Automatic annotation (TrEMBL):
GO terms for molecular function: nucleic acid binding. It comes from the Bacteria. Residues 3-47 form the Tc1-like transposase DDE domain. InterPro entries: RNaseH_sf (IPR036397), Tc1-like_DDE_dom (IPR038717). The lineage of its organism: Bacteria, Pseudomonadati, Pseudomonadota, Alphaproteobacteria, Rhodospirillales. This is Transposase. Coiled coil: none annotated.
Length: 75
């Protein structure tokens, strides 16, 4: 398969097994962690409420932007 790909003039790029830079969920987790630190809740119930409130602020457009930023946009 590698020979066929190279024979066509294409280049193989090998990625690590896991790359946070290529995973759109990492951007969302970064925002969630930032907001949770700001909320500074210390009980389980308060933390769960804070997570729910934060997730309610994330729009479908924002999710689309996370995907587009990582090359996963669909036309």
């Amino acid at each position: 398969m590698r020979r066929a790909i190279r024979a066509s003039g294409a280049t193989l790029l090998f990625l690590p097994k896991y790359s946070p830079d290529l995973n759109p969920i990492e951007q969302l987790f970064a925002k969630l962690k930032h907001c949770l630190r700001h909320a500074a809740e210390r009980t389980r119930d308060a933390l769960c409420r804070a997570i729910a409130e934060i997730l309610d602020t994330i729009s479908p457009t924002e999710c689309t932007n996370y995907l587009a930023n990582n090359g996963n946009a669909r036309a």
